[in-house]
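dude i think i finally got it to work??
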Amino acid sequence: MGKVYQRIEPRLRAFIEEQKVFFVASAPLADDGHVNLSPKGREGTLAVLDDRTLAYLDFGGSHAETVAHLRENGRITLMWCAFTGPPKVLRIHGRGEPIFRDDPRWPELIGHFAAADGPGARAIVLIHAVMVSDSCGFAVPFMDYRAERTQHAEHFGRKSEAEFAAYCAKKPHNGTSIDGLPAIPLPLPERTA
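look at this
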C-alpha cells in the first residue's frame, strides 16, 4: 500500500542513496509538447541536501529537455525503483530549477558533487519536494548491478572547457528544446567554480 510523506524521512533518504539509478520526468505546458523521461545514474551525481531538497548534476548530452521544461514551468518528478531487496518505488514530485554555471549559487552547490564533478557539467538541477510518495514495486524485476559505465565521464574528460562549450553549441537541442523552448544558455556560461 502506497504512502505519502511530508518530507524525505531518514529511511527514504537511505533508500535514495542506495539506488544506482533514478529517473527524471518533466513536460512542457503545451498539449502537443513532448513529455521527457530520462535515466540518471553516474555515481555521486545526486545529493539529498535536506528533508525537502535534492540536487543532481546535469551533464552535456544531445538534448536539454528537462532544463527547458524547468525554465518554462518548474514541474519535475524523480523516481527510484528497488531492483534488489524489498520491493519499493519512491517518487518525489517537486518544483525544480536549473542552476547554470554562472549562477552565484553554483560554487556552494557544486561542492556536493566533488567526486563526480567534471568538464561535462553544464547545470545543477535543484529540486524542492512538494510531495513524497512510495508504492509497492511488486512488478519491478530483480536486476543485478555490475559496474558504472565510464564512457560518459571519459568522453567529456578529454574536452577542454572551450571544446565542451563548442560541443553544446553545435547540438541542435541544447540551446532550444525539441518543442522550441529555451534550454541551456548559449554560449555556455563559464564556470564560477
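The chain is about 20% helix and 30% strand.
im so relieved honestly
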